[in-house]
Amino acid sequence: MSTLVGRVLTALGRVYDPCSVVAAAPVSIVDMGLVTGIEVDARGRLVIELRTTSPLCTLVACLARATEEQVRRVPGVSTVEVRIDASQLWTEKDLSPDGRERLQARRRRSALEVPVAPRQWQRTARPPIA
Amino acid sequence: MIDGLFVFDAVAHAYNLSDANTQPNRYAAGLRAALTSLHRDWQPGIGLGALEQHTDWPVEVLARTLFLESDVDMAATHTLRLDSYFKDGLCARRKTVEAVRRWPQRFVGYVGVDPTLGLDICLRELDEQLDELPEAVGLKLYPAQVDPFRTWRMDDERLAFPLFARARERGLKTVAVHKASPLGPVPLNPYRIEDVDIAVDAFPDLAFEIVHAGVAFTEETCQALARYPNVYANLEVTSALASRSPGVFEQVLAAFMAWGGPQKILFSDGCMVFHSQPILERLRNFAFSEQTMEHYGLGQLTHDDRALILGGNYARILGLDVDAAKARIATDEFAQERAETGIQPPFSNWRAMLREAA
């Protein structure tokens, strides 16, 4: 059974958090820490629980669909049910070390591309709208 | 006022979530369900049920909820043009007019147009609405419509720029654009922040509010807050994270404080999706953790910071004299009733209205 769970985890590693993709730093839902549960019984009936990074995430249906599509192909899985786990809030602490490093590298790259100083607007001639 | 601070809620709405007003497409049904869930689940125990929410919310109930049940002193209400989701756009033009005309000491109004209809229609409708409500202070915009999906960009020099120019010419102070919170299973790009940059630089004498700032794309929002004097983080819905997800709220507020500073943050809550008072109570007691202050290189949130965020910044954008505003509301109908009853229970006025209507 652990082999089957391992294969499922490998498949989940091919499902990417859509916002990270748009940010040009694709991180899988496993590395994002969005997978909160995997249960599989002897007949290969699989239940996966997911959370989102924000309670307001409206891409949850896309995540669920992509997850189902990937794990349905895993040999040994007979049925797939994806549940959205609203009980567990996500924070940045839930990132895996690899996921954290990938996002931090993207941030560092962005800072180099567009150097912006905190409260830079205060150095301009214009005050805030008055 | 709360702790002596003037509170200006920069977004409050009287929606129409009735069956008859909901467009017959799955995006509209999904958005209505999402709004209903926000009301029910993010402030559990005080909200109304789905059937009670799926009604046409009266402006009078909005006013009573804000000014009798919370410490909000003044509020902005927007004419919404989510026409492809709701037949009246979700918050009809007549409601904005009613709020501003009945209680000018309490409400300011935003006109609303849908840029996906094209420039000619936008300019005509902007002029019509401002002819009707010349005291309007702002323009509210949504980045996309559905069924079929269509969008526009803030940096479109042929569509958006002439619209902003007309808004400025007609005396509007601020442009509020919904960002960061995609309205259903729709493409994400229109809800990103980047298209704001060129527009805000081209119109330095207009304020631009990124509404729902921090719900997503916090880093991009921070970059805009840091670079441009006229970009503001409007905390509608984001402020409710203070109780729903306090850790997330702390990180978002810290990021905005670090990159933009307290001068760039506007309190709002989207009342009556949320009730203002529990959020204000949270903000009154809010403090950054030592770890967060160290992480961002920030000091603790001060009384002066709160004064700016809760109303000072928005008053500055509008050119509002806060002392004069306080004097106007000191003895109005809401002040008088509240002096007799004290602060009223959350959503008690809405429930009373529904009971009377039943």
Tally of individual helices of chain A: 5
Strand order of the largest sheet of chain A: 1-2-3
Helix fraction of chain A by DSSP (H/I, runs of at least 4): 25-40%
How much strand of chain B?
5-15%
Gyration radius of chain A (Cα, Å) is 19 Å
The H/E string of chain A reads: HHHEEHEH
The CATH H-level homologous superfamily of chain A: Fe-S cluster assembly (FSCA)
| Distance separating the two termini of chain A | 66 Å
Report the structural category of chain B. Answer: alpha/beta
Rg over CA atoms of chain B: 19 Å
Total beta strand runs of chain A: 3
Largest sheet of chain A: 3 strands, mixed
Based on the structure given, which CATH architecture of chain A is correct?
2-Layer Sandwich
What does this protein structure show overall?
- The complex is a heterodimer of chains A (130) and B (358).
- Chain A is of the alpha+beta class.
- Chain A has a single domain, classed as 2-Layer Sandwich (GMP Synthetase, Chain A, domain 3), CATH 3.30.300.
- Helices cover 38% and strands 14% of the residues of chain A.
- Chain A has a 3-stranded mixed β-sheet.
- In chain A, 29% of the residues are buried.
- With 358 residues, chain B is of the alpha/beta class.
- Helix content of chain B is 45%, strand content 10%.
- In chain B, the strands form 2 sheets. Chain B has an 8-stranded parallel β-sheet, with helices on both faces. Chain B has a two-stranded antiparallel ribbon with strand order 5-6.
- In chain B, strand 8 (207-211), helix 8 and strand 9 form a beta-alpha-beta unit.
- The radius of gyration of chain B is 19 Å and the shape is globular.
- Chain A binds chain B through residues 18-19, 22, 54-56, 58-59, 61-62, 89, 91-92, 107, 110, 114, 116-122, 124, 126-130, and chain B through 30, 34, 42, 173-174, 181-186, 188-189, 192, 204-207, 215-216, 219, 223, 225-230, 237, 241, 244-245, 247-248, 251, 258-261, 263-264, 313, 316-317, 319.
